[in-house]
């Protein structure tokens, strides 16, 4: 227990200020992330929106998968995933292929064009991130990565 009652209020006030600053920075980060996502989506294909770009990234990371599995893995609504898959197919960035383990089922996967375009955009983005993080110390990178991992685990 603190010796003086004012010690609690000072500590609580500092924590509240820190929480407000964090909320402000996260709001900026999320806004910039949406903007960057839209810019990168347009580089993959001019008709690609940010949400479908996110799904394209996910499909690239997990490989060929059933649409139902996409719904389960992403937590998105079935109709949303269906619309995004239809849009990505229409843009020739993904395709439906037979499931080798079940001839009745179909898998969705990136097309060769989708893979190539996404790889170029991701490489360009990676080069920019490397240049930006080149100014950071290894300790700062490690701590930032650790804290982001903690945030992602809590979300």
Automatic annotation (TrEMBL):
<dbReference type="InterPro" id="IPR036390">
    <property type="entry name" value="WH_DNA-bd_sf"/>
</dbReference>
<feature type="domain" description="HTH marR-type">
    <location>
        <begin position="19"/>
        <end position="153"/>
    </location>
</feature>
<dbReference type="InterPro" id="IPR036388">
    <property type="entry name" value="WH-like_DNA-bd_sf"/>
</dbReference>
<protein>
    <submittedName>
        <fullName>Winged helix-turn-helix transcriptional regulator</fullName>
    </submittedName>
</protein>
<dbReference type="InterPro" id="IPR039422">
    <property type="entry name" value="MarR/SlyA-like"/>
</dbReference>
<dbReference type="InterPro" id="IPR011991">
    <property type="entry name" value="ArsR-like_HTH"/>
</dbReference>
<dbReference type="InterPro" id="IPR000835">
    <property type="entry name" value="HTH_MarR-typ"/>
</dbReference>
<dbReference type="Pfam" id="PF12802">
    <property type="entry name" value="MarR_2"/>
</dbReference>
């Amino acid at each position: 227990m603190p010796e003086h009652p004012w010690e609690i209020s000072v500590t609580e006030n500092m924590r509240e200020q820190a929480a407000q600053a964090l909320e402000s920075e996260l709001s900026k980060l999320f806004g910039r992330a949406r903007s960057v996502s839209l810019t990168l989506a347009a580089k993959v294909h001019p008709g690609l929106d940010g949400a479908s770009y996110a799904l394209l990234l996910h499909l690239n990371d997990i490989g060929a998968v059933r649409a139902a599995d996409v719904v389960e893995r992403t937590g998105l609504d079935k109709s949303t995933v269906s619309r995004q898959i239809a849009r990505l197919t229409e843009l020739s960035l993904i395709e439906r292929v037979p499931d080798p383990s079940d001839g009745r089922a179909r898998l969705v996967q990136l097309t060769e064009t989708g893979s190539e375009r996404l790889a170029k955009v991701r490489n360009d983005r990676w080069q920019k991130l490397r240049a930006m993080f080149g100014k950071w110390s290894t300790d700062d990178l490690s701590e930032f990565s650790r804290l982001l991992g903690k945030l992602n685990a809590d979300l």
